Amino acid sequence: MYIDLTLHTDFLSLLFPMSPIMLHILGCGSAKPTTNHLPSAQILEMRGKFYMIDCGEGVQTTMQKMGLGMLKVGHIFISHNHGDHVFGLPGLISTMALLGRTAQLHIHGPEEMREFLNMVLKMYCEGIDYEVIFHPVRTHEHYLIFEDRSIEVWSIPLNHRVPCSGFLFKEKQSQPHIRREMIDAFNIPVSQINNIKAGASWTTEDGTVIPHERLTTPADPARSYAYCSDTRYAPEIAKWIEGVDLLYHEATFPHELLTQAKKTMHTTAKEAALVALKANAKKLIIGHYSARIKDTSLLLQEAKEVFSNTILANERLKVSIL
């Protein structure tokens, strides 16, 4: 049996299910918006789903500039109840209603933001045609707060002026890959591919058993992303994100302003790099810049002296996790 792969897109997806996980930076400034940076907001794109992380002002405009559809956001994860992380929610919820949303919207965040969210829904979003469901996060525990078929999301306890949680996104392990040449060689029907990927062997017409191991190659390693903002330097974070593929960590100040960082419960660029180093992270993105920092390249230089594979966050930056 010969199969024309160019005519079978579903078949191709069975053979090659791996797709990049994409991080979209919508805002990477801190409490005071500047002409250079918007407050914190990101979207993690995975297998066609959008997971929003924090929702500062300006998210709608940036999403439109980046071509990111608002209705694709199903879950929003809020780290803490400070304005620069939540003030984008009223407008976003309202615009989703104007766009005709009917699917539920799930918002995960500290219990302390429940009152704010209820006020927003009552004053500005009453009568919308979809349900907004709030899921409180226990910010002092590291535990599984959400999962679907593709991903697990774990809380990361952070040390800030108010209850605050980071988030660890862990891709669920995929199945092995089918070897394309074996499909043709043994006339294996498309209907059996998922069974083989799940561990089944294939028996030919003459009774020969072809073991699963000959028909497949190992699955791709599961990928992960960690988001840590806002927090005082907390080296214990490393044990919860060990080996993470991509780490976003706040770096509000340079290390020369360590006293200010401690006072405001924030992290310096050097300290963010130390967390990445201790966690054996593969790549670090620093952000959440103080408005007083005019040249963020100095933060990058400071971090790279400790952890070389560091980059700066910027609005409309896209980072792939391959």
What does this structure look like?
With 322 residues, this protein is an alpha/beta fold. It has a domain at 175-217. Helix content is 25%, strand content 26%. The protein is built from 11 helices and 18 strands. Strand 8 (151-157) and strand 9 (165-171) form a beta hairpin. Helix 4 (89-98) crosses helix 5 and helix 10 runs parallel beside helix 11. It starts with 8 loop residues before the first helix and ends with a strand. The model is unreliable at 1-16 (pLDDT under 50).
Structure characteristics:
322 residues, alpha/beta, 7-stranded mixed beta sheet, 11 helices, globular, disordered N terminus
Short description:
The protein is an alpha/beta fold and 322 residues long. The chain has helices spanning 9-15, 59-66, 83-86, 89-98, 114-124, 180-185, 193-197, 212-215, 258-264, 269-278, 297-304, and strands at residues 21-27, 41-46, 49-55, 73-77, 105-110, 132-137, 144-147, 151-157, 165-171, 177-178, 202-203, 209-210, 216-217, 224-228, 246-250, 284-287, 310-312, 318-321.
